[in-house]
Amino acid sequence: MAIRVPLYAALVFFVVAAILGVITNRPAAYQGVSEDGLDELLTRDWSDPPDTARKMIAEVLITELKAARSANDTKSSLLLAAIAAEVAAMALVAASVALVIALA
């Protein structure tokens, strides 16, 4: 009977690891320049000095980079949690095997 407890716990951890792994691999909606924002650029006054254009481009790139890093940080945290759950599940399976051997 005592052997079932770590096996049930291992099952729970394997399920948690699987769910977190699937969530980690789902496509993320990265933020970026909208289509409307790009269309707006075409209708703007193009007489701005080059420095103004370079600054606008830099702001857009920085915004996109920050959004991508934030999304990657979230995925990384989920993946680390999935790995931890898998390690815990494997340890529980190993404990169950040890109990079977000890009680045999």
Output the number of helix runs: 3
Q: How many domains, in number, for the residues?
A: 1
Structural class: mainly alpha
The end-to-end distance, rounded to whole angstroms, is: 13 Å
- Which descriptor suits the 3D outline? rod-shaped
Helix content: over 70%
Major β-sheet, in short? none
Give the strand content: under 5%
Task: Report the C-alpha radius of gyration, rounded.
Answer: 25 Å
- Compute the average pLDDT: 88
- Say how many strands there are: 0
Order of helices and strands: HHH
Poorly predicted residue ranges: none
Explain the overall architecture.
This protein has one domain. Helices cover 82% and strands 0% of the residues. It has three helices and no strands. The mean pLDDT is 88.
Give short descriptive properties of this protein.
104 residues
Short description:
Helices cover 82% and strands 0% of the residues. It is an all-alpha fold and 104 residues long. The chain has one domain.
Topology, element by element:
Layout: H1 4-25, H2 35-43, H3 50-103
